[in-house]
Design brief:
The chain is an alpha/beta fold. 46% of the residues lie in helices and 13% in strands. The protein binds guanosine-5'-diphosphate. Guanosine-5'-diphosphate is lined by residues 104, 106-112, 140, 143, 189, 250-251, 253, 276-279, 283. Part of the signal recognition particle protein translocation system, which is composed of SRP and FtsY. SRP is a ribonucleoprotein composed of Ffh and a 4.5S RNA molecule.
């Protein structure tokens, strides 16, 4: 898969897509900086981060004449610098099973991401078990079963409306008995009643800790890039109700809002483990800061 966000790059929007076409050099002045800031903000980078990026770019360069391609690569370098510390694949623990709790609002791409991850781990020779912990959404359970079939991974389910914690406990047991390397637990994404969801997640954690007091080893928050700045609020909320250890950003294909990743990295510094770049099973890519930055500025 092509891991770069497929959309017009930011600078392409004011300078045109072809750098040659814009060979004349432009003076880096306040007006230029302002239009760069506006562009970054329009990508949902957030005002603070956008201002910092342009300030770094301007440092020692005000009044200089730069070609469009120079501006592009300077901007991309500034963005990549912010992103590099957060680009980390999902850490693998020697623990068996490694327990990955997957959280996020409904529609963010939890189910799809679990399917894609399961497939990648399978391809790497790992044994995986999935628990369909969103027991209140029959559609989510069915969808997860479809993904499990595609990835060749067993999916544990429970009757609709039953206690997700009890399913999680059974899943732990099965994963241990099977000698599975990885257990991924889907969870509900109903933020309407935050206290309920918090209690539900806490109970799942309590119950799996009965079998392994170091679990869960990762709590993955799945975010939808097309929600733009909303993603920041979701991180805030989920960090309050769970122990978020890393992020997966979905739907980076075809969105102009990819700048929100920069804002997230700048504000929270949480690792970005992977990015979703499509609806198919192979459309999950490692996060590559330079590629991302270049695609964003275009
Ligand atoms: P959940 O409710 O959080 O489990 O979300 P789903 O996994 O069911 O995903 C919601 C919708 O987003 C589905 O139509 C998915 O096909 C779609 N989706 C998930 N990830 C991606 C992605 O990376 N790119 C695109 N284009 N669509 C995605």
């Amino acid at each position: 898969p092509d891991p770069s966000p497929k959309k017009p790059g930011l600078l392409g929007r004011i300078f045109g897509g072809d750098a040659k076409e814009a060979e004349p050099r432009r003076v880096l002045d306040d007006a230029m900086l302002e239009s760069l800031e506006e562009l970054l903000i329009s990508s949902d980078m957030g005002v603070d981060t956008a201002l910092r990026v342009t300030a770094n770019l301007a440092e020692g360069r005000m009044g200089r004449k730069l070609s469009v391609s120079e501006i592009k690569s300077l901007l991309a370098a500034e963005i990549a610098r912010i992103m590099e510390p957060v680009a980390k694949p999902l850490p693998i623990y020697p623990k068996k099973p490694q327990v990955v709790l997957v959280v996020g609002v409904n529609g963010s791409g939890k189910t799809t991401t679990i399917g894609k991850l399961a497939s990648q781990f399978r391809a790497a020779g790992k044994q995986v078990v999935i628990a369909a912990g969103d027991t209140f959404r029959a559609a989510a359970v069915e969808q997860l079963q479809v993904w499990g079939e595609r990835a060749g991974v067993p999916v544990l389910t429970a009757p609709e409306g039953s206690d997700p914690a009890s399913l999680a406990f059974d899943a732990m047991k099965k994963a241990e008995e099977d000698g599975a390397d990885l257990l991924m637990i889907d969870t509900a994404g109903r933020l309407q009643n935050r206290a309920d969801l918090m209690e539900e997640l806490a109970k799942i954690v309590r119950v799996i800790r009965k079998r392994d007091d170091t679990a869960p080893h990762n709590t993955l928050l799945v975010l939808d890039a097309t929600t733009g700045q909303n993603a920041l609020q979701q991180v805030d909320v989920f960090r309050k109700i769970s122990d978020v250890s890393g992020l997966v950003m979905t739907k980076l294909d075809g969105t102009a809002k990819g700048g929100v990743l920069v804002a997230l990295a700048d504000r929270f510094g949480l690792p970005i483990h992977a990015i979703g770049v499509g609806e198919q099973i192979d459309d999950l890519a490692p996060f590559d800061p330079e590629e991302f930055a270049q695609a964003l500025v275009g």
